[in-house]
Specification:
heterodimer, A: alpha+beta, eight-stranded antiparallel sheet, elongated, B: globular
Chain lengths: 277, 190
């Protein structure tokens, strides 16, 4: 090392592209004016080129990719708990019970309990818990990207399912004219909450899905429409019900009729035959 | 039955890295058949992880980390039979070489000499050369793959270069086959 301004280590790191932008700029300025460092850098580059040329020629055998692909194709895809949920739903109506009901407010979800089997639930709610979730109308409110954005519901459900314990139902790709565009993770009542976002143009509806409380799992509503709880907080409207051991909340700032139309269609889709994934 | 799109996407991500993965496994093991097995196993492990929800920030570095761990594990399993494995610390403790590029690489015949010299290096050093200089990874990516600090990658790389220069200068024929000599750094710029 003959240059007192630049160490071999630094010069080598610069040639290897391992320096930060500012440091790299300083070294480049020095190398441009120091012939010793310039020549040493060129020598290092040639050294790297020789190694790359000598060691980089090898290609994988042509049969290797076919073997890899064949082995991947036989790898079983893990199944969530959807099949068991479907089986339970297929057994037919179950006794009704007081279900946990939820309503949503800006920045948070409030979970209520129905005090009677009245279908006019708006005035018969007992607050169980109020907890803040990170967001709900992900794009509209928080302006943050979805945790997972995909036009393939299998991808979204696999991604969310792996994080909420495989308790997501088989959500369909489309509900009415709304298309599933992705999902997001939240926390509510100490549980992971999977939020699915459907969109139709600029209109978005978010569906929160979480395991119902223990006392609610054994009984669920056989008629979704009769047992939905509805709640309005400012421009945000929520429709909540328990189905298949899951507490499902449909949240949107769309008109009530449109949101309820979506919720009804969603409920029907949950009873449809299981999608093949 | 339609193939899961997850598999299609994984294959699309993976396909462009298979040559590099194979090269790295071959560099580490020296055995083409074993290298194929290790690459296949790495791909399977990666796919299984993806199916359980693992989402790597850097797919390439993640794949190489799985592979290099397999290679290192295999080398450990083969302890006593491998001829070129030296513990990383032994290498760290080796003295610095006196030679620089000017004295050595120009003496090497491209190809066999250099390949043989690299093959004689300890596995850790071969992997660093392969990942950084051949596959073009950053120090950070290589450190992620080899589960060590960036500084270790840098020191191993310097050590590998030094050992290669020593090896090539010791065995190079002085018969006029030299590539154009590198200028010595000290001859200029004063």
């Amino acid at each position: 090392m003959s240059c007192k301004f630049l160490s071999d280590d630094t010069l080598t790191a610069w040639v290897d592209g391992a320096l930060g932008t500012e440091k790299a700029r300083d070294v480049a300025c020095h190398v441009a004016t120091c012939s010793a460092c310039h020549d040493a850098a060129e020598a290092l580059r040639r050294e790297n080129d020789m190694l790359r040329t000598a060691l980089g020629q090898v290609r994988a055998p042509t049969h290797l990719w076919a073997q890899i692909s064949a082995r991947l194709a036989t790898e079983p895809v893990p199944v969530t708990r959807l099949a068991s949920l479907r089986a339970r739903l297929a057994r037919g109506p179950r006794p009704l019970m007081a279900a946990a009901l939820a309503a949503s407010v800006l920045g948070g979800v409030v979970v209520f309990q129905q005090s009677s089997r009245s279908t006019t639930t708006d005035t018969a709610l007992q607050v169980l818990a109020v907890e803040t979730v990170q967001d709900y109308m992900t794009f509209r409110i928080s302006q943050r990207a979805l945790d997972v954005a995909s036009d393939d519901p299998t991808d979204t459900l696999l991604w969310l399912g792996a994080r909420v314990g495989g308790t997501l139902p088989d959500m369909t790709e489309n509900v009415l004219d709304y298309r599933l565009i992705g999902g997001r993770l939240c926390w509510l009542m100490g549980q992971r909450l999977g939020a699915l976002t459907y969109a139709q143009g600029e209109d978005q509806i978010t569906v929160y899905v979480m395991p119902a409380q223990d006392g609610d799992v054994d009984g669920f509503m056989d008629k979704v429409e009769d047992e939905k709880a509805r709640h309005t907080e400012g421009p945000i409207r929520s429709t909540v019900w328990v189905e298949g051991g899951l507490l499902i909340a449909v949240v949107s700032d769309l008109p009530e009729a449109e949101k309820n139309r979506f919720a009804t269609a969603l409920g029907e889709s949950l009873r449809a035959p299981e999608l093949e994934i | 039955m339609q193939r899961p799109s997850q598999l299609d996407k994984f294959e699309a991500l993976l396909r462009g890295h298979v040559d590099a993965l194979y090269r790295t496994a071959l560099r580490s093991t020296g055995d083409p058949g074993l290298a194929e097995d290790l690459v296949q196993e790495a791909c399977l492990r990666a796919y299984r992880s993806l199916l359980t929800g693992v989402e790597p920030d850097n797919f390439r570095a993640w794949m190489f980390r799985i592979l290099t761990n397999l290679c290192i594990d295999h080398a450990r399993w083969q302890t006593g039979t491998a001829t070129n494995h030296t513990a990383a610390q032994e290498v760290e403790d080796m003295p610095e070489t006196a030679n620089g590029p000017a004295q050595t690489y120009e003496n090497a015949r491209l190809g066999d000499d250099l390949t043989a010299a690299v093959a004689a290096l300890p596995q850790d050093l071969q992997l660093v050369i392969q990942l950084v200089l051949v596959e073009g990874m950053s120090y950070r990516e290589a450190a992620d793959c080899m589960t060590c600090p960036e500084g270790t990658i840098r020191s191993r790389l310097n050590r590998a270069r030094g050992l290669l220069r020593d090896s090539l200068s010791a065995h190079a024929p002085d018969n006029g086959d030299r590539i154009v000599p590198f200028p010595k750094r000290g001859d200029h710029g004063k």
